[in-house]
Amino acid sequence: MKSMLLRNKVILPLACVGLLAVLTSCSGKNAPDEYMVLKNQPLAVPPEFHMTPGGPTEDLDDVIAPQELAKRALFGES
After folding, report:
1. 77 by DSSP, 3-state: which?
2. With bands split at pLDDT 50, 70 and 90, how would you rate the model's confidence at 24?
3. Which of 21, 51, 54, 76 is paired with 34 by a 20 to 30 Å CA distance?
């Protein structure tokens, strides 16, 4: 019974000090204001996005079809 009383005398003040520290840390003036969030501009695609470095069709001759890539991945090179 004596150890329980001693435990309550130690734990209760420590819990109060901890709670006080947590509550006072939330009331700072440097806290972010959730109502002052700025909106970002929407993403835009540049007008020359479709172009390749050598021209519009120069690199497209060597492109492998997705179906052919899938067949090679499943069954190996043939």
Report:
1. coil
2. confident
3. 21
* Residue 14, domain member (yes or no): yes
Give the Å distances, CA to CA, from 52 to 23, 59, 62: 58, 7, 13
One-character DSSP codes across 22-63: HHHHTT-TTS--TT-PPPPPPP---TTTT-BTTBSSSGGGGP
Structurally, the chain folds into a number of domains equal to 1
Residue whose entry in the numeric block shows the structure tokens 């009331």: 27
Does residue 2 sit within a domain?
yes
Instruction: Tell me if 16 is assigned to some domain.
Output: yes
d(CA 11, CA 18): 10
Q: Is the dihedral of CA 65, 66, 68, 69 positive or negative?
A: positive
- At residue 19, the pLDDT reads 86
* 38 domain-assigned: no
